[in-house]
Design a protein that fits this description.
By secondary structure, the protein is mainly alpha-helical. α8 packs antiparallel against α9 and α11 packs across α12.
Length: 258
């Protein structure tokens, strides 16, 4: 069953064409595992569908802007604007950036999308739910004990290698630092904790070693400081400073330490 409305491509293509943009995004709505496309369309029209994510004012300010700056692109890299499922990319953009998906890996969009952003000159946002994100317990990001979750580790470090080789590392340093901290280290750690019956200690603890090696000043990152505050920021500092002790206490609280 297809999980997007019949007007998805028409809406995106029209928006990208009219604006002569490099890429266009449409909003994602959340639907249940059992929900049919017809039911989802009715909820969309009734305005009762919950969004997977929204665009903040900083992102909306870049909608249709001519000639994005490096700082604009860095902002778009660090925000949940969207991914390959709810976007339409122009041929000229893909020909300009020459980025390919890595073969045989899950989470391949984590490698591809940030590099594509580095070449976007104009983006357009369609303020309409056009893609239905189904809550599938067997999806890539929810499957338990799946070895491919380790692909995250491979691809995030491959991303760093690629942007260094292509001269983009210093140019968009704040974005790479934030993505490495939040998406690679913190998100991967929580996947390891919650989606593995046998917590992969070596892989998890290696995350923090690599963070300190690659981005020793991660806590001063402007995107991180803007988005992560208060108790959450304190917990992250404790985790990254003392991952073994933090993990032991965390798993004890979950009744899983052994």
């Amino acid at each position: 069953e297809v999980d997007f409305p019949p007007d998805l491509l028409e809406t995106l293509y029209g928006a990208v064409s009219r604006a002569n943009a490099d890429v266009g995004f449409i909003l994602c709505g959340l639907i249940s595992e059992e929900e049919t496309l017809e039911q989802a369309l009715k909820r969309r029209e009734a305005g009762t569908m919950r969004l997977r994510s929204t665009w903040n004012d900083a992102v909306r300010a870049l909608d249709g802007k001519e000639r994005l700056t490096d700082r604009d692109r860095e902002r778009l890299m660090a925000e949940p604007v969207g991914g390959v499922v709810n976007a339409l990319f122009s041929r000229r953009l893909l020909q300009r950036c020459h980025v390919r998906f890595p073969e045989g890996r899950r989470y391949d969009d984590n490698y591809w999308m940030p590099q594509v952003w580095a070449h976007v000159e104009k983006v357009v946002l369609c303020d309409k739910i056009g893609y239905f994100y189904r809550a599938n317990p067997n999806s890539t990001v929810r499957s338990r004990n799946a070895p491919y979750h380790m692909d995250r580790c491979v691809l995030e470090n491959a991303l760093l290698d690629a942007v260094k080789e292509n001269g983009l590392f210093e140019r968009y340093h704040a974005a790479w630092e934030y993505l490495y901290t939040q998406r690679y280290v913190l998100n991967s750690y929580h996947i390891f904790v919650h989606l593995f019956d046998d917590f992969p200690r070596d892989a998890a603890y290696r995350l923090f070693v690599e963070l300190r090696e690659n981005f020793p000043h991660w806590a001063q990152n402007r995107f991180y400081r803007e988005k992560v505050r208060g108790l959450k920021a304190l917990k992250n500092r404790l985790l990254i400073a003392c991952p073994r002790l933090y993990t032991r206490l965390y798993l004890l609280r979950l009744g899983r330490w052994r």
